[in-house]
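Reopening this one. Same input as before:
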Amino acid sequence: MLRSTNSTLQRKEAVLASNEYLREVANEPSLGMYYLQEHVKTSVPALMDVKGRFKECTKSAKTEIHSLNNSVYSVKHFCGSVPGHLDRIKARLDDVLEKLQAGQE
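Same output, byte for byte:
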């Protein structure tokens, strides 16, 4: 009699343990999904805010890059044309200076 009581008790414990295990396994994915949803709910608004600021910065950077490219183009253009003008101006000033010196003698 004692043996059948122990056996029945062991079966009940085994069934209860199995039920608890199955309950945990069944709830595990939904618990993980809950935490994922909570994470998304708290993280996404902040990320969207950062994304908006990043877009503004990108737009501003593109404007500055465009201005910088225009400046580089202007400097290259002036470097190509200004030295010739400066050489001609220097030559004229030298001629005037020679004429002034010749007139003073």
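So the earlier flakiness isn't reproducible anymore. For the record, Residues 3 and 9 are 10 Å apart (CA to CA).
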